[in-house]
Amino acid sequence: MLSAILAYAALPSLAHADALPSWNDGANKTRIVRFVEDVTDPASRNFVPPAERIAVFDNDGTLQTEQPMYFQLAFVFDRARALAPQRPEWKTTEPFKSVLEGNLARVAASGDHGLVALVGATQGDATPEAFSKVVSDWLATARHPRFKRPSTELTFAPMEEWMAYLRANGFKTFLISGGGIEFLHVFSERVDGVPPEQVVGSYVKMKYELRNGRPVIVRQPDIDFIDDKAGKPVGIDRFSGRRPILACGNSDGDFEMLEYGTSGPGPPRALIVHQDDAAREYACDRQSPVGALGRGLDGAPQRGRAVVSRKDDWRTIYD
Amino acid sequence: MLSAILAYAALPSLAHADALPSWNDGANKTRIVRFVEDVTDPASRNFVPPAERIAVFDNDGTLQTEQPMYFQLAFVFDRARALAPQRPEWKTTEPFKSVLEGNLARVAASGDHGLVALVGATQGDATPEAFSKVVSDWLATARHPRFKRPSTELTFAPMEEWMAYLRANGFKTFLISGGGIEFLHVFSERVDGVPPEQVVGSYVKMKYELRNGRPVIVRQPDIDFIDDKAGKPVGIDRFSGRRPILACGNSDGDFEMLEYGTSGPGPPRALIVHQDDAAREYACDRQSPVGALGRGLDGAPQRGRAVVSRKDDWRTIYD
Prior knowledge:
The structure is a homodimer. Chain A is α/β, with parallel strands linked by helices. The first copy, chain A, has 14 helices and seven strands. Chain A has helices spanning 2-10, 14-17, 27-40, 71-83, 96-100, 104-109, 111-123, 128-141, 157-168, 181-185, 188-192, 231-240, 255-261, 310-313, and strands at residues 54-58, 172-180, 199-211, 214-225, 246-249, 269-274, 305-309. In chain A, helix 13 (255-261) links the parallel strand 5 (246-249) and strand 6. In chain A, helix 4 (71-83) crosses helix 7 (111-123) and helix 12 (231-240) crosses helix 13 (255-261). The longest helix of chain A has 14 residues, at 27-40. At the A-B interface, helix 10, strand 3, strand 4, helix 12 and helix 13 of A face helix 10, strand 3, strand 4, helix 12 and helix 13 of B.
């Protein structure tokens, strides 16, 4: 009995740790719990008032599987295939030709110019309502090539638990993605518990106009903002109005966000969710054509970045 | 006793109306209360789930006094005066010359070009943290020329009550302003109860960089987005991810936002807070150099826009 009491006294975080059943006990789970206990304790010198408890999470590869292809890119590929019969010229025009042939590497090589052309041709001239309908319909039918489940079901249970645990402790959890903001708005609240106003993504230019006398806004074919790499801290500031105290990503697209999230006053914390579980999900980092991770790993501990191993730290991958 | 019960039964909104003591009884107060009762009643055909209860409010002139000069313009003028000793060339260069002479009409005539020059010269090259400090210091000392109070104390009690009443009924209240988003972030939560992620404003381009090894983002001299007129519906979509069901403004800069807010499915509602109280605040509309209102008044009722009279509908103006 006494030993039980002593054990409990020595491990005050155990009671809270129940909020994270998909995490294996270990340094990273302890780190996560201790951080929350620290910043929410009014007696701690690291106490952070609720309004400033901003945590930012990358989406693809951090909250859900991003292999073999970014979530929205799968949408763009399917959308191009669906529209191709009306656009015979795509068979011979890049980047559409490579999309229709499923040649991811060559699509990637087309760079921002190719991306703009793709987004414009497959997602332009739609109102947010119409675009949202197209995405919803796609989400309902598209299946991941390996797991045969909708991508929105391939979210990581440990991450969803962690975000819920943060919110239960007064945090706001923001989703910071290179994907399109309107694409993310369709599912972020339902899937991740993140309301649209806490979503930061890339966006296209939009135009206000009257269609049949009804005021609408319409997607234009031009990219306005790319929320990736050095764009992520800019997007975070613009949408959250604060410097986050916790940042989590999985690839070098998140590098600047992680640097930014470990540079404020107080006890900032950054975590990299390492894609290292080939058996249950995927294993790839420096050489990956999608979600490459190299800079982020280099000198991670010295820079205040902890590395989470999916293989070792996660008891469960998906719900 | 029976008459009291009957009276109560005939006026079911009276209990709720206590949330709005600064409003005089009348058609507009009833309209406001009935609307909330309608969209929050699960049995109503106009029921709106909480996640979709988005209400958007203009700031200057709608939530606080905007005469004789927009809130942020007063800041820019003061800032230019403070910096002028280091910039002797401003005495002979427009729009700085007119700013230093206090010639609002000529500054306005310099248009977007002048605005960009002003914002760049008085607010550029600062981190959000440094800019926020400059704004906070200004807010602490600047006084309104007529009322001799800080502008953040010149918020309208009936509007603050109304927003609180909406939030108590599951609404999210967004602030939609032509002013700068980072300027608004400094006070929106404290003054209006609106957290930064529910603020939409104009913004400048920002750049991520390392300063003395520390990651920062830095304001650039170029305007990126102007959240006024046709920009407001675009900003609302980008930041809230939804079409609002309630929109409130006071000037023609809000016209498109009010049109957009009255065009969704369900029972949308738009209100114009008419600046018609010269004794207690200001009275001006079609001819005003600041916050002109003409289009908004024309055919308001037919377009689903109600007009609130500050003189008749508001018992109190300021707290």
